[in-house]
Structure formats: structure tokens, C-alpha cells
Amino acid sequence: MSPSSFIALGFAISAVFIFWTLSATTSSPFARSFPRLYNKRICLLIAHPDDEAMFFAPTVLALTKPELGNHLKILCLSSGDADGLGHIRKKELQRSAVHLGLRNESDVLIIDDPTRFPDSMSATWSESDVSSLLASAFAPEMGANSNPRKRTRGDKPPVATIDVLLTFDRGGISNHPNHRSLYHGAVHFIRALMKDKPGFTCPVTLYTLATTNILRKYIGVLDAPVTMARGALGALSETVRGSTRASKGDAPTRLLFVSSVGEWMTAQSAMVKAHQSQMVWFRYGWITLGRYMAVNDLKREKI
């Protein structure tokens, strides 16, 4: 490659970083065009301690901003005990969650049930087990429907103690079977919640984190301008169609969170300082090059 080519490449990368730095601020025209959630009870459903930092950090950092009035909790379905470090990783998750903006460590619930939810690259968790756990945690009235003597009437609206559920999509970002199981379990939960409830609106909105191709997955912050431009065009398209949400209480079709430079560094710090047991050499590559450390785009699932 000639010297002029190196210079051109350097200018291009610098331009991307400048664009990202200026446009990721909350006051930028790009950021103002992205839908937000206000005053919501939100659950982030993850499979392992460190998922919240490696994949969902931009989402957690954005949704826990005090001015939005949200209350975000994390439900983790394993202690990450594949290497016998579960007791350590539980504490690491709690520290990371608070570092990323959760109110306190009690907002993190960790399920340690290796029989149903083993931390394994080869284990697919039962969608009914995931759904049942979500129901017991957030929709206790669903249990009454399985008891004929206590069955709730079909003319009563479904009730839940959360408004928004966030998790992986069917691709699971890394194709990890535990990640993919959460998607299927969450969908099963929503369907069960709405069973025999025709005509009612589901009280829980499910958003899933979009899996990208491997190139976009590892270009880090260089993916930010592309994703932000697509998000802005999508918002403009909805405006033209007249389908934008008129009030803060309505559920957007998509959510896009792009971290600022400071937030990106906070996400890296959550991994390095809180998840010390997981910081082997290749994780440093992920927190530097992984686009999910800076960019999250989520889709509302229509079920």
C-alpha cells in the first residue's frame, strides 16, 4: 500500500471517530431522532455474568439515565459456573451492573440451577423452563391459570410487574445455544401471558438485540456511523408514513443506542474492573473491536 493510501485510510478512520464523537451525544440531531423509553420497568434477560457488559452495555447505560425515569433490573439464568467460578462471577455481575448504571446490587437476580440452565456451549435450555421462570418472577397470576379452581377470567387483562423485556434475538449474537434459548423462552412467555386474552394489549413489550454479520461484529466503533445513519433513515421513514409514536407511553418499533466515547470507556471498565476472572487475552480484543461495546440496535418482536 502506498503512503498516500495509508494517509487516506488514516483520514477516513479519523473522520469516522470525529463523526461518532459528535453524533453520539444526546443533543446531536442523530441522537434526538432515536426513540427512547420513559418511566418503564425493564428487565434485561441474560444467560451468563458478563453478557450485560459484553453485549448490552450501550443499552444499560442509556436506559438507566436518571432523567428517563426507568427502573432496570437484570435476570441472569446461570452463575457462569462452567469453569467452577460461579461464586466469583455472581459478585462480578453485581459490581458490573452497578458500574453500568443499575441502582443497586439487589436489582440483579442470578439463577443458579445447573440442572435446568447449565452454562454450556452445547446445552439448549428448555423454552418452557425459561418461560415458567419469567412467569413466576414477573407474572404470578399466570400460575393461577393452570389451576382450574383459581383460573382467572378471560375478560380480565393480562398483568405483569415489568413493562419491557430485553434479551438476545434468535441468532444469539455469537450463536451460543444458551443465548438463543433466552429468545425462544421469552417468546414462549409472551404467548403464554396472552393466552385466552383476545382483544387485550400485551403488558410486556419484548425487544431483542440484533445479530449482525461477522464483519460488522468486529469493526467496533466504525459500525456506529452506519448504524446511526440507518436508524435516522428508519425514523424518517416512519415519520413519512405517519407511524411514529405520538407519546412517550407508546412502544417504538426499534431502539438504537450508540454510546459516547465516555460511555464506551465505561463499558470497557465494567469488563476489566468487574469481570476480572474473565479477562483472558482475547477479551481485550473484544472490548476494543466488538461493535456491541458501543452500538446496540434492538427490534420489537411482534408475537
Automatic annotation (TrEMBL):
A Pfam family assignment: PIG-L
EC number of the protein: 3.5.1.89
BP terms from Gene Ontology: GPI anchor biosynthetic process
InterPro entries per UniProt: GlcNAc_PI_deacetylase-related, LmbE-like_dom_sf
An example Gene Ontology molecular-function term: N-acetylglucosaminylphosphatidylinositol deacetylase activity
Family: Belongs to the PIGL family.
Name used for this protein in its record: N-acetylglucosaminylphosphatidylinositol deacetylase
Organism: Petromyces alliaceus
